[in-house]
Amino acid sequence: MLQNASLNSLLFPSSDPSNSPPPEADTYAISALILASPSQSLPPTYIVHGSIDDKVEPAQSRDVIAALKARDPEGEGDRWVYEEVEGKNHTYDFDEREEMKGLYAFLQKWL
Fold first, then answer.
1. What is the tally of structural domains in the chain?
2. d(Cα 57, Cα 3) in Å, to the nearest integer?
3. Which of 68, 2, 61, 9 shows the shortest CA–CA distance to 35?
4. What count of Cα atoms within 13 Å lies in the side-chain half-sphere of residue 65?
5. By its UniProt entry, which InterPro entries does this protein fall under (predicted)?
């Protein structure tokens, strides 16, 4: 719902009798939430995204990465990592042949 910007229409249908305007869809954007809470510490974060994902555009992850860079520029490659896997689509990691070495190395470091 968030990824496809349909949350507002699901939570606030146009037939809502209260007639109060729904919040802007950007209110739910993860990147906006990261930037809106500069005093809160961020957890270690690993984001992996297929470059040809047709369900969730890679731009969604890139927006989150831009917010992480703004909040924690020194954390890149350490506290937060972004891996965009060329030529992979949504749920490519369901394939048991995908080793996800970067993800497992990150988890080993932080868990």
1. 1
2. 8
3. 68
4. 15
5. AB_hydrolase_fold
For residues 30, 79, 42 and 27, what is the CA-based torsion angle, rounded to 10 degrees?
A: -10
- Note down the domain range covering 11: 7-110
Tokens of 23: 């919040």
**In this structure, is residue 1 part of a structural domain?**
no
Asked if the structure places residue 51 within a domain, the reply is yes
Tell me how far apart the alpha carbons of residues 53 and 61 are, in angstroms, rounded to a whole number.
11
Report if residue 55 sits inside a domain. yes
Query: 76: which DSSP letter?
Result: B
Q: How far apart are CA 30 and CA 27, in angstroms?
A: 9
Q: What is the pLDDT of residue 33?
A: 87
How far apart, in whole angstroms, are the C-alpha atoms of residue 24 and residue 26?
5
Closest C-alpha to 8, from 23, 19, 20: 23
- Is residue 23 in some structural domain? yes
The arithmetic mean of pLDDT across residues 83-111, rounded, is 96
